[in-house]
Design a protein that fits this description.
Elements (H helix, E strand, L loop, with lengths): L16 H23 L9 E2 L11 E6 L5 E3 L2 E3 L1 H15 L4 E6 L5 H14 L3 E4 L2 E2 L4
Parallel strand pairs: 1-7, 2-5, 5-6
Antiparallel strand pairs: 2-3, 3-4
Helix pairs in contact: 2-3
Length: about 140
């Protein structure tokens, strides 16, 4: 095999096409992943007001379940029945390899029986870390 002789060439050419392709792929990846992260809490709900509470800065894997005023449940941006919420939470626990945190976002007009059913599902699934998303009580 003959070794190429580059002594007579004046400049070196660098092909930028692969670098541009990778850059655009990274931009698309971050746009899609940020959209999916925002989608989890996209549904505007009139959250309950709490007089006391603590901010949630936990690094633990969190599944957000939204309970709409009509009594429907949403997990991962999809409206699903309660038995599928249980399956979704169990699959999330399996994917994370153990315990997860469940954040419940509920409309303040939602009947408590829908929230109680969701809490029962969490207990049956073995989820003990449950938090509620609320608004702070306005200062008087």
């Amino acid at each position: 095999m003959r070794i190429p002789n580059y002594r007579g060439t004046q400049s070196v050419n660098i092909n930028m096409t692969p670098m541009i392709d990778v850059t655009f792929l990274l931009i698309i990846f971050f746009l899609v992943s940020s959209h999916l992260a925002k989608q989890e809490t996209f549904v505007p709900l009139d959250l309950p007001i709490a007089s006391a509470g603590a901010p949630d800065f936990s690094e633990k894997a969190t599944a957000t379940v939204q309970v709409l005023a009509s009594g429907e449940y949403q997990l991962n941006g999809q409206t699903i029945p309660l038995d599928q919420v249980r399956r979704g939470l169990l699959s999330r626990m399996n994917a994370e390899g153990g315990a997860i945190r469940v954040r419940i976002r509920t409309d303040r007009r939602t009947d408590y029986s829908h929230v109680a059913s969701l809490l029962k599902i969490c207990v049956i699934a073995g989820i003990t870390d449950v938090v509620f998303a609320v608004y702070d009580e306005p200062a008087s």
